[in-house]
């Protein structure tokens, strides 16, 4: 059994197939922010904006450092509050800015936006997640406090689908394995690296046929794969064979592609029974969130 994963995860992936982000019933967030200019400034706006002027911009709390492109694009419009740059302990830093912060930007799952953090920000009205997943945000507490929550939606669907197919081709054709074999000097000692396998004709079971799962299926169909899927319910508009049980899906698949997110319903959905059903030559590609 070969396992490939997009990112390290301490638990099995989990999103019930075709699961969507819960809609928060909150009041509309009307920011008192400066209007966005039609043309972005050239160069590094953060470097060009004097400190005094920056402090007069609408304050936005960052949970962790932003990547340069995002930071540079937004730095001329918002005053970013960065706890990690302050000599103050985190709790004291938050207390010092508690009356000003109305928006929080989350870049990555850590630190978590939990009830303890939200209690430190009584004026908070908006949490913006740069990710699709919101597992790191206490949605119930945000709803209770009337805080709006946004995420990246389907912004990364195509990229994640590409990555899933790339992982599968790499494992089947042993591209990374062959590279390591040569770099370790094993070619002249042990001879040729074992050949890999073709992708065409493989039976691929997709666990979670949402937007990402569907994008993966579309790509793999072009390679001549047979697509099977597991979901909470059968999709009438889909011609792929449906399995209500993941173990039965694994038994008829050469490959399992996990495109669901971590929830209580899908926690450990890929268990020992599933892996035994898939068999010792099976492949698991995990691009699920969680």
UniProtKB/TrEMBL annotation:
Gene Ontology annotations for the cellular component aspect, listed alphabetically: cytosol
SUPFAM superfamilies: Formate/glycerate dehydrogenase catalytic domain-like, NAD(P)-binding Rossmann-fold domains
Pfam families: 2-Hacid_dh_C
Keywords, ordered alphabetically: NAD, NADP, Oxidoreductase
All copies of domain D-isomer specific 2-hydroxyacid dehydrogenase NAD-binding, residue ranges: 165-290
Gene3D superfamilies on file: NAD(P)-binding Rossmann-like Domain
InterPro entries assigned: D-isomer_2-hydroxyacid_DH, D-isomer_DH_CS1, D-isomer_DH_NAD-bd, NAD(P)-bd_dom_sf
Signal sequence range: none
Name listed for the protein in its UniProt record: Glyoxylate/hydroxypyruvate reductase HPR3
Parts forming coiled coils: none
GO molecular function: glyoxylate reductase (NADPH) activity; hydroxypyruvate reductase [NAD(P)H] activity; NAD binding
């Amino acid at each position: 059994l070969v396992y490939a994963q997009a990112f390290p995860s301490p638990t099995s992936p989990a999103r019930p197939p075709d699961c969507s982000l819960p809609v928060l019933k909150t009041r509309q967030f009307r920011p008192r922010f400066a209007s966005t200019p039609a043309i972005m400034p050239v160069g590094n706006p953060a470097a060009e904006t004097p400190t005094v002027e920056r402090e007069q911009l609408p304050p936005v709390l960052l949970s962790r450092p932003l990547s340069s492109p995002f930071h540079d694009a937004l730095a001329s419009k918002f005053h970013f509050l960065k706890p990690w740059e302050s000599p103050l302990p985190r709790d004291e830093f938050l207390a010092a800015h508690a009356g000003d912060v109305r928006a929080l930007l989350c870049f990555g799952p850590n630190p978590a936006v939990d009830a303890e953090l939200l209690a430190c920000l009584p004026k908070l009205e908006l949490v913006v997640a740069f990710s699709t997943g919101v597992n790191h945000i206490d949605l119930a507490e945000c709803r209770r406090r009337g805080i709006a929550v946004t995420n990246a939606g389907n912004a990364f669907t195509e990229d994640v689908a590409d990555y899933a197919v790339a992982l599968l081709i790499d494992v089947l054709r042993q591209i990374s394995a062959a590279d390591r074999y040569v770099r370790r000097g094993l070619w002249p000692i042990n001879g040729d690296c074992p050949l890999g396998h073709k992708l065409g004709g493989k039976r691929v079971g997709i666990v979670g046929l949402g937007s990402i799962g569907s994008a993966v299926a579309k790509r793999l169909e072009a390679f001549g794969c047979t697509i099977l899927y597991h979901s909470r319910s059968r999709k009438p508009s889909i011609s792929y064979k449906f399995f209500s049980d993941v173990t039965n899906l694994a038994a008829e698949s050469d490959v399992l592609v996990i495109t669901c997110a971590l929830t209580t319903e899908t926690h450990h959905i890929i268990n020992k029974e599933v892996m035994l059903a898939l068999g010792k030559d099976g492949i698991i590609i995990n691009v699920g969130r969680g």
